[in-house]
């Protein structure tokens, strides 16, 4: 049975940053359930126009590059059983048994799965995109349809700030990624009209001036649509503006989805018997040797995730006595 000081579960930027920073301080092993490392951040795109919009994606790429070469890791495996024993944990995966003194859960979040909640989406979904789909299209350069669109609506807070659905929290990242996508689309296609439906704007943080410029380039409504209907030619948005129910027509709609705990985070909550917050995010038990960082504990952006992972590695280094 392999013995390590710290077992990091999850190979996104949180897990890679904490494992990289701990290299000199103890024996560290990282388990990632997918075939490759990097998590959600490596699926996101650079959103620069003629200037950098400070989205943090290249900082994430740097963490992944460093972790890829510097961290001992096993991909395609995840803890299946855990036994607490004196001085740590015995952990079984599909293929091996491990003993670890401390565990870090960095199992992350996923974009809100809008397809599982029909109340957020009506129609055939050919002209309704999630923000995550748009990020991936931008990354792969697949924006041909967008070149033909003359009007777009961005709908904010999809899967967040909805206490009735037990998703009352703010997902932190979606106002900022949406405004960066707006800036990028307007830079590529200056003729497009963009309407922006939101309650308010969370734009504090890196590059907020550029985000404010993007917010000024759109028509903003302080209201969220209550229904969308798609047909072959476009999408009708049903929304209450100034107390009156009204409908507007667009060539396409982008849903700015928030974050919920990943299925892997939810499984780890059960395995380690950890409490969960709204959205399934976990509350760690450091007093028992179970730590957590990154979006496994709640929505946060790339910069905050990396800072949190670095702080945690200091704390763990001190516990390991190095
Ligand atoms: C649409 C969208 C756009 C975004 N845009 C931006 C942006 O422009 N700027 C920004 O700063 N942030 C942005 N974010 C947020 C950013 O993606 C996160 O801050 C970042 O990915 C958090 O990293 P993480 O390591 O905590 O989690 P993740 O990236 O989710 O990584 C978790 C890793 O753990 C693995 N895992 C899960 N469960 C298990 C398990 N049980 N066993 C083993 N492995 C497991 C997963 O496979 C994954 O590799 C965006 C998010 C979304 C959804
Ligand atoms: S911070 Fe974002 S917008 Fe700026 S260069 Fe890096 S990836 Fe591109
Ligand atoms: S970041 Fe913006 S879009 Fe996302 S939940 Fe918060 S207020 Fe809504």
Features:
seven-stranded mixed beta sheet; 322 residues; binds flavin-adenine dinucleotide; FAD/NAD(P)-binding domain; binds iron/sulfur cluster; 2 domains; 8 helices; alpha/beta; single chain; five-stranded parallel beta sheet
Report on this structure.
It is a single chain. The chain has 322 residues and is of the alpha/beta class. The chain has 2 domains: 2-110 and 260-319, FAD/NAD(P)-binding domain (3-Layer(bba) Sandwich); 113-257, 3-Layer(bba) Sandwich (FAD/NAD(P)-binding domain). It contains 8 helices and 17 strands. The chain has helices at residues 13-22, 57-70, 131-140, 144-148, 174-188, 208-216, 263-271, 302-319; strands spanning 2-9, 28-32, 73-75, 81-85, 88-92, 97-105, 109-111, 128-130, 151-158, 193-197, 219-221, 227-230, 235-241, 244-250, 252-257, 259-261, 290-292. Strands 1, 2, 3, 4, 5, 6 and 17 form a 7-stranded mixed β-sheet that branches. A hairpin with a 2-residue loop joins strand 4 and strand 5 (88-92). The chain is elongated and about 65 Å long. One iron/sulfur cluster binds at residues 46-48, 52-58.
